[in-house]
Amino acid sequence: MTQTKTSGSRPVVLLVDDNPDTRALVLTGARLYRPPFDIEFAQSAAEACEMLSRKCYSALVLDVNLLGPTGVTVAAEAHEKCPDMPKVFFTAYDRSVTHEHAAEFGMETWAKPMDAKELFGRIEQLIASRPAGPGEGAASPLEVPVVLSAIAGALLSAGS
Fold it and tell me: pLDDT higher for 2 or 56?
């Protein structure tokens, strides 16, 4: 599976959360703080798995308690298809079972709520921790142009 981060391009993070308020807050934070990566959103496990079937991302930030199939389903799929992709559970439910699933898939667990600046800083560290793939450079965030992904803008427009 091809990583989306290639030399000269911005990393792309897949954020999976069924709560439209969480997605809107992340999008608003991205406009304010301009993180050095783009964000694509999935609203369900099924949508996330479909997106992961097409490509691997620079990182996956995933809610555990999604309606329908849970984030654990997405984590298992991501672990199989994109084993080197950094993955994290981002959840309001700090339960031992969440930590057990996170350990099973080599993931971290981050607690909601978290302000956007801290979230983006953690995501940036998560991306930096991933080993570079073939043809990938270690571009500094300062070398990367500041542009939000088209899908993030479309989601904000759709939510208005």
Answer: 56
